[in-house]
Here is the input.
Amino acid sequence: MLHLVLIAVHAISAVAAFVLGFAVVWSLPARMNPGFRAYLVAMSLMLLFLVMAIATDWSQLDTLKKAIFAGLLVLGAYTGLRALQAAHKLRATLDPPGYIADVGFTLIALFDGFVIVTAFDLGSPIWLVVIVGALGIILGVAGIHRLRRRAVNHTQVLAH
Here is the structure.
């Protein structure tokens, strides 16, 4: 029962982080704001409950699943680091649109996480998971490049 609650809170936090992260890159804040803070909180909760969910189940996992979950923890830690880097860039205002790549990375990682978990739950073939995950990465990177260009143009207009 505890494991299911931890998974549910993890999933809710991940969806909240995705929605808030998208709102952050779309709205182009010039400084730290409540929306960005909410995104950071959601990312932190998502990671915390991921660790807790894996920890409660760790002793019952076989070696392959332990390796997969260890990889997910490393990806989660790196994703959290990118969210923190985005916050630092936004606070420092050294590179106003620079935070978009960091938040964008977290959005792509979250999207692929949603796809992979859903695909496994539905029993999808691995080739389909790989294709949808790769498309998510390709479209996500293209979207982030467009948002960065938009942010640079927006910053240049504000500077004049």
